[in-house]
């Protein structure tokens, strides 16, 4: 039930700190260490490459998860859109292992790939919110999101829970391979949960940002580099899905290769900067669009902020930054949709789970 909330989406956004705290507990053993079923870790350690297959928001979570796995566990990962995979199957490695990410566990496009993967005899792990769902039953292994039912069509808490589970998976896998983590993931996810709380309390400020940048616009661009690029893709999907503003996320470096032609006077460009390594480059990209008349909204992480930034998120482990930087984007989308009188929880033409290919 949505209780006193006007929409499920807002309730589910607010649940994110709790979901992350619950997730930590669910994946902790009696000594407080994070664990993943040893059969899963063994299966991954017998494989030579991970293929992540998913759709929509879950695909965006996969892009971030792949970075976490490659950076921490040093296992090569490819991320694929489910609906393309079957028609355009890449040349697989000798010992592939598949990870299906799906909130509902019912997405037909992902299931079609799973059926094929099982026919080929490869191991498959499903990361899902729904125990007993089709993708969970048909895969060899399941990791649950423990996010509680997600009712709003726009996925919010499932995305951050997916990132939480993938970070735990990456860390446990890294340790099994003898790679030393230079941080304590339990502690850092706790910091993330606290930061999420701060962000959920910033609703008024984010509503003002939505009003200032998106009240009358027809389109909006999201730019970022590395992790921030993937979060930008998710921010753009959220915005278009519920507010019907045409939104596009792209890599900051790609601007000059075409998209910059679309920038006009007043075009909102939401730039995300949470990664020290690319902070200067993305700020350079912001200057390029501003010179063409764009209305820039910079969302940065504390420590990298400058005076021109519109919103600053609390500092967290850079690898976990998408779990926090996505929240202002979710809330900005929510308010943009609200201001436009859109049906936030049930956007037109969309269903919660897409059960046709
Ligand atoms: O249940 P799944 O995670 O497999 O769903 C995948 C997509 O259909 C889903 O993420 C969709 O993109 C959402 N409406 C995004 O908010």
UniProtKB/TrEMBL annotation:
The UniProt record lists the keyword Repeat: yes
Protein localization: Cytoplasm
SIS domain mapped to chain residues: 40-179, 209-347
Catalytic residues as annotated in Swiss-Prot or TrEMBL: 352
Catalytic activity: D-fructose 6-phosphate + L-glutamine = D-glucosamine 6-phosphate + L-glutamate
Keywords tagged on the record: Aminotransferase, Cytoplasm, Glutamine amidotransferase, Repeat, Transferase
Broad class of the protein's primary localization: cytoplasm
Enzyme class: transferase
Subunit structure: Homodimer.
Protein name as annotated: Glutamine--fructose-6-phosphate aminotransferase [isomerizing]
Species assigned in the record: Sutcliffiella horikoshii
Origin organism lineage: Bacteria, Bacillati, Bacillota, Bacilli, Bacillales
Name of encoding gene: glmS
Full protein stretch here: 245 to 601 of 601
